[in-house]
Design brief:
mainly alpha; single chain
């Protein structure tokens, strides 16, 4: 017997965003409502195939479908994208802090080079900031 874990909203959002066709559909809907036919135009696929993509987006809460007589417009629902962005923010901070530390380290290396009269790094072990002796090299 297979136990299925409940799928959370963030997982559903990222699963929907994993497909480039669905991302393109969302990008189109960011500029306004569109019908299935309009959304299908740029793709070389059948209307039923596009409808399947729309169902995935709808289940993820990324789009909503309306009804206006015979026209069933699709529109973007950005709430799940905000949730994904909030989750990604913690990693954005991690990378920004990592790059800041790297910048500090590179500035320190440049300061040390200026103090010791070095004008630049050359290829080979001498350029890597460690003390290498010719005896240690093969």
């Amino acid at each position: 017997m297979v136990n299925k874990m409940p799928v959370d909203r963030l997982t559903t959002t990222f699963a929907a965003l994993a497909d480039p066709t669905r991302r393109a559909i969302l990008l189109r809907l960011a500029s306004g409502e569109a019908s299935v036919t309009e959304l299908a135009q740029p793709f070389e696929m059948s209307l039923p195939a596009v409808s399947k993509h729309l169902k995935v987006l709808e289940r993820a809460g990324l789009i909503a479908r309306g009804r206006d007589a015979q026209w069933r417009p699709c529109r973007l629902q950005a709430g799940p994208l905000k949730d994904a962005d909030d989750w990604l923010e913690q990693y954005r901070r991690f990378w920004e802090e990592s790059f800041d530390r790297l910048d500090d380290y590179l500035r320190e290396l440049q300061r040390e080079e200026k103090e010791h009269g070095r004008t630049g790094r050359k290829g080979g072990p001498e350029g890597w900031g460690k003390t290498w002796h010719k005896k240690a090299l093969p």
